[in-house]
Structure formats: C-alpha cells, structure tokens
C-alpha cells in the first residue's frame, strides 16, 4: 500500500509518523486511480536482474495493516520461507512521507538500521519520486530496495524460491492452473481488491456509485462460483485465494463503514463469509491477521475520510472461529502437502489484536 504522496522532509530517527504531515487520498471531483507502476526488478534463481535467490540476503518489509503486504506474509508462511527471508514490520500508521518502523526499539529496523522504509528506496533511487509502498524487499548488504512489485513478489516466492520451500509446501501457482488463476486474479484485483479503494477514495458521487456497483456485482459473481467449489481455482488453496482473502478480512472492520461499501456486511453474505472463515482457520492465513492494526491504519491514516481519527470499537470478531462447513464441498487446503508450523514467537500476532477465543 502506498503513502500516495510526494516525498517530504524525513523526521528524525525514531519519531514515527509525523502527525502534522498527513496524507491525502481523495481528489475532489475525481474517481480514484491507483498508480500501478512499481519497481519491476526481480529476485530470481538465475539472478538475471542482478539479485539472485540467496538465503539470508533479503529482508521483506511489510505491515500487517496493509492488504497488499498481508499477501506476502501469508505466502511466506505457507511456503516456509521464514528462515530464508527475514521480516521487518512497519507500524500500522504512516504520514505522507513514508511507512515507519515505530514498533521497533528506538524506531529503527533492527537489521536495516533505518527509521523509514523510504531510506531504503532512496538508497537505490535518490529522490525517489513515487509513493513509498509496502511490501518491499530490501537487499540487506546494500540497504537498497530491490522491488515493491507486490503481485510479482508472491509469484516469485512460489516459483523462484523453491530451493528454500519447506517440506510439504503447497503449490500456490501450479503450472496447469496458471491461466485460470491469472484470469481470476485480474477480476478480483480490478473489482474487489482495488474496488473497495475506488469506493472509499472516490471524489464524487458518480465515481463512488459506479465503483460500488462494480464491487458488489463481482462479490455476487464470486459467491456463485464459491457456492459450487471450496476454493477459487482447483481443489486446493492457490495464489487466487490469498489475494481475495486479504480484502475479505478487512471488509467488515473497515471497508463496509469507512469506505462506504455498505450494501451488506461480509457476514451477511453466506457463501463468502463461510469461505473467508475457512481460509482464516487454515494455518498460514488467519494467524497473519492483526485486526487492531488494520483498524488503526485505515481510521487514523485517512484523515480526509475520517477527520477525527477515532477508531471504532466494533465489529464483533468472535465469529471468525465458528464452523464453516466448507469441507463438505471437498478439496484439501494443502493437497498432498502439509500445513505450516505455528508462527515463530517473534512473528506471531499479539493475542489481544486477534479474535476472542473464549
């Protein structure tokens, strides 16, 4: 997710986001158009872009609040890449300049030694002119960002990092299903993943209503598809499920109210609600979700939508752990593979930020 703002002066180390420098996300009188030009450098097994796959060399910088970054957390967990690719986590809020490492002691990433991910961008591209986004992968020896191309990052985790996959890792992007996965992903991205933002960041009534109609038309279509099969493509979890899941988990806590996607809550859509709970209860999915940070991010950062910065107490999240009965449709989440082990203690979502278990 981008700060969507031009560069500004960087605060001193450890100060965190600058409250006096909030981002702006809505352009009055216009619909929202996402800048999708990312740093396309890739980390590959053959190192053709100058960055070969190498355990311990790279650091994934993410934020639990961000749906685009949440994808990388899930895929890294499912494939067992935790020991090969270290993880740096930004806090849930940021200013117009950059995401910050305000969760770490002294406000500095303990490996990169920087307070703002912008510093890694500018190490490679001085005066980097575009939005500072997470997820990003940083080359630790040089301290420079390699890529922030989030759709490609997770595909490359599946295809280029196979030498470091855990035993039993699932095939999230199997060759025989790639064309169908790509087709599904394209529709989910334009209408749902980005569709909620086109609703929330719309600058006029007509743009909002068009985005709203497109969003719920697609959700109805996905409900019909998933009424017949457990997963979006094939009989196991794939990249397609990862991409839809991160939007669904944020729907009721954020998008329904904050982004005015309010025809219905996710929990009022029986098929999608059961599908989301099925994935949430699958190891590697729900255990990456931090509902507290998600709400803090959207309601505090988007001051032009929510000027007070008040974070709502609701909704009730306890129902995420209720039975979903999706197993009746067949399929196995990991196919012939196995679930990932529990998260490393240092990477576990704090219990108080998750869902009530009692």
Automatic annotation (TrEMBL):
InterPro entries: Glutathione-S-Trfase_C-like (IPR010987), Glutathione-S-Trfase_C_sf (IPR036282), Glutathione_S-Trfase (IPR040079), Glutathione_S-Trfase_N (IPR004045), GST_Omega-like_C (IPR047047), GST_Omega/GSH (IPR016639), Thioredoxin-like_sf (IPR036249). The record marks 255, 298 as: Lowers pKa of active site Cys. Residues 1-26, 321-358 are annotated as: Disordered. Pfam families: GST_C_2, GST_N_2. It comes from the Bacteria. One of its GO terms (molecular function) is glutathione transferase activity. The active site is at residues 66, 197. Residues 1-23 have a biased composition (Low complexity). One of its GO terms (cellular component) is cytoplasm. Residues 174-298 form the GST C-terminal domain. PROSITE patterns: GST_CTER (PS50405). Glutathione binds at residue 99. PANTHER family: GLUTATHIONE S-TRANSFERASE OMEGA-LIKE 1-RELATED, GLUTATHIONYL-HYDROQUINONE REDUCTASE. This is GST C-terminal domain-containing protein. It comes from Gordonia amarae NBRC 15530. The lineage of its organism: Bacteria, Bacillati, Actinomycetota, Actinomycetes, Mycobacteriales.
């Amino acid at each position: 997710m981008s700060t969507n703002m031009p560069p500004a002066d960087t605060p001193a180390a450890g100060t965190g986001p600058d409250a006096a420098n909030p981002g702006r996300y809505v352009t009055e009188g216009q619909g929202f158009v996402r800048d999708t030009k990312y740093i396309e450098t890739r980390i590959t097994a053959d190192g053709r872009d100058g960055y070969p796959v190498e355990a311990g060399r790279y650091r994934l910088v993410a934020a639990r609040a961000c749906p685009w970054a949440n994808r990388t957390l899930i895929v890294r967990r499912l494939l067992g890449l935790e020991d090969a690719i270290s993880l740096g986590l930004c806090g849930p809020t940021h200013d117009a300049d950059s995401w910050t490492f305000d969760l770490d002691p002294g406000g500095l990433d303990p490996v990169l030694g920087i307070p703002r991910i912008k510093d890694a961008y500018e190490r490679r591209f001085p005066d980097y002119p575009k939005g500072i986004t997470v997820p990003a992968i940083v080359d630790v020896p040089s301290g420079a960002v390699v890529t922030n191309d989030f759709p490609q990052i997770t595909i490359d985790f599946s295809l280029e990092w196979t030498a470091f996959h855990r035993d039993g890792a699932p095939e999230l992007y199997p060759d025989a299903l790639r064309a169908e996965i790509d087709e599904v992903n394209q529709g989910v991205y334009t209408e749902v993943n980005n569709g909620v933002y086109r609703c929330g960041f719309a600058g006029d009534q007509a743009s909002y209503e068009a985005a709203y109609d497109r969003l719920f038309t697609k959700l109805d279509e996905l409900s019909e598809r998933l009424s017949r099969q457990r997963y979006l493509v094939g009989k196991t979890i794939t990249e397609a499920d990862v991409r839809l899941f991160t939007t669904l988990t944020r729907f009721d806590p954020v998008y329904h109210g904050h982004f005015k996607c309010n025809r219905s809550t996710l929990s009022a859509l029986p098929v999608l609600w059961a599908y989301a709970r099925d994935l949430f209860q699958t190891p590697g999915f729900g255990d990456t979700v931090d509902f507290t940070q998600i709400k803090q991010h959207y309601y505090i950062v988007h001051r032009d939508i929510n000027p007070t910065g008040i974070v709502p107490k609701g909704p009730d999240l306890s129902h995420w752990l209720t039975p979903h009965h999706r197993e009746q449709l067949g399929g196995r989440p990991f196919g012939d593979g196995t679930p990932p082990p529990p998260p490393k203690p240092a990477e576990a979502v704090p219990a108080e930020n998750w869902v009530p278990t009692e």
